[in-house]
Amino acid sequence: MNPTYPPSHLVSFFLVLTSFISCFGAYHQNPNAQMLNHDHGYISQAVHHPFVTTNHRKGNDHKQWFPSLLTAKVVARRGTKANAPVNSPKVVNVDDFGAKANGKDDSEAFKKAWSEACSSKRSAVIVVPKNKSYRLKPITFSGPCKSDLQFLIYGTIKASPRISDYENDRRHWLVFENVQKLRVRGGGTIDGNGKIWWVKSCKVNKSMPCKHAPTAVTFVDCMNLIVANVRFVNAQQMHLTFQQCRNVRALNLVVLAPGNSPNTDGIHVTGTQNIRISKSVIKTGDDCISIVSGSKNVQATDIVCGPGHGISIGSLGAGNSEATVSDVFVNRATLTGTTNGVRIKTWQGGSGYAKNIMFQNVVMRNVSNPIIIDQNYCDRDSSCPEQASAVKISNVTYRNIRGTSESEVALKFDCSKSIPCQAISLQDVSLTREEDGERAKAACANVKLAKRGKVSPQCSRG
Ligand SMILES: *[C@@H]1O[C@H](CO)[C@@H](O)[C@H](O)[C@H]1NC(C)=O
Ligand SMILES: *[C@@H]1O[C@H](CO)[C@@H](O)[C@H](O)[C@H]1NC(C)=O
Ligand SMILES: *[C@@H]1O[C@H](CO)[C@@H](O)[C@H](O)[C@H]1NC(C)=O
Ligand SMILES: *[C@@H]1O[C@H](CO)[C@@H](O)[C@H](O)[C@H]1NC(C)=O
């Protein structure tokens, strides 16, 4: 998917990253985070974190701003504005702006609520009340806002089911654009009402033209963003995209769509730096997490995935484009019945790199391609011609990867002839066949491998 927004200017992100990580340490104690089935033994064991440095800077701006998700309490009732203490946030309830939650369109009320909150000089909270279902057409919630904002979704936000409502922009439903210090949380649901789009997908019905469907929620050019405790269901296409964002925490998310729903990626990361996705359950019809060009410092921790297409870097380099992805750390994931486990896929003819990638502590259950690098990715009916240039793949580590493969080939490195995969390291890998528990196979081409500990299956020499 190509970004359709201009890239934001770069920031000095690295110092921000280190302090960002340290200031989120408290979230590990989040008692709401127990939705994952931590049923594999090592999940609770402390794991060395390659991105956390000892440089724990204090006292910067967003350390002061990012409060604990647990201690930040908000009075969510109506009519509390008059007697609110001076320092409490301004509460903006969508019902006060005419939202009815009666099956008719509530878009105008949400737009007014956003504009009220966004222009507030003191921090503001938009409340979407519980036990109600609000109907929205495509909306862009734009910043910059005057203060920090919370979007508290207790109830349900549901997409308009009329495709004609998306005439102006078929790629997006809800967009948060150019907002800083935004928190979206509340335990509610964002429902893309995707069925009407899926039946029109050319992947589902070959007689239909191939057209895009909207991404349910897009954050673009956002900075210091938290999305926590939200359910995303039945997106029109992708569920949640972070595009050109900096400093993002996405945690305790549940993303659900049928396994056969087309292109319904769970969380898509593009052009985004310093993002931590954690404690999330993703069951959809496409990649659980997809990470594409321009992304750097991406962590995904404690992920339950499947059905779906697994955790994917790429595809990269489509249409001879340059792509760069680096510093991706996937730690503690369980993939069940997915078509891929951990995958890197690039098109021939691209350029750039995918490097410094670690997949660690991953359990595969009946996964079709548990470990795969595909530098000859081709998502077309006709085959793709051989090309010399490629996105260079280097420094990829697979550490403690166990479980079962649905197919015979559990490990596949299909690398470029002209630009082989370099410094690919396998450490303690054990994958057997789901069917009979027998030894699985490895298929390896043009790859420079290092091996530590027990590794099975292994590439044959030569
Ligand atoms: C929501 O509905 C549940 C079950 O009907 C009820 O117990 C609860 O009080 C309701 N909450 C609100 C805020 O209306
Ligand atoms: C596919 O789309 C065509 C054209 O709209 C329609 O006639 C047909 O019933 C659809 N097939 C399925 C399986 O939905
Ligand atoms: C390889 O990648 C890891 C992160 O996975 C990083 O810590 C390390 O510095 C990289 N090594 C080189 C030689 O770049
Ligand atoms: C493994 O996956 C295949 C294909 O998705 C499925 O047919 C089979 O029933 C699965 N096996 C188990 C034990 O779940």
Automatic annotation (TrEMBL):
Enzyme class: hydrolase
Places the protein is found: Secreted, Cell wall
Entry's family note: Belongs to the glycosyl hydrolase 28 family.
Source organism per UniProt: Turnera subulata
Identification of the protein by name: endo-polygalacturonase
GO terms, biological process: anther dehiscence; carbohydrate metabolic process; cell wall modification involved in abscission; fruit dehiscence
Residues annotated as the enzyme's active site: H309
Reaction equations catalysed: (1,4-alpha-D-galacturonosyl)n+m + H2O = (1,4-alpha-D-galacturonosyl)n + (1,4-alpha-D-galacturonosyl)m
Enzyme Commission (EC) number: 3.2.1.15
Keywords: Cell wall, Cell wall biogenesis/degradation, Glycosidase, Hydrolase, Secreted, Signal
Molecular function as annotated in GO: polygalacturonase activity
Coarse class of the protein's main subcellular location: secreted
Annotated Gene3D superfamilies: Single-stranded right-handed beta-helix, Pectin lyase-like (2.160.20.10)
Signal peptide coordinates: 1-25
Cited PANTHER family: PTHR31375
A Pfam family recorded for this sequence: Glyco_hydro_28
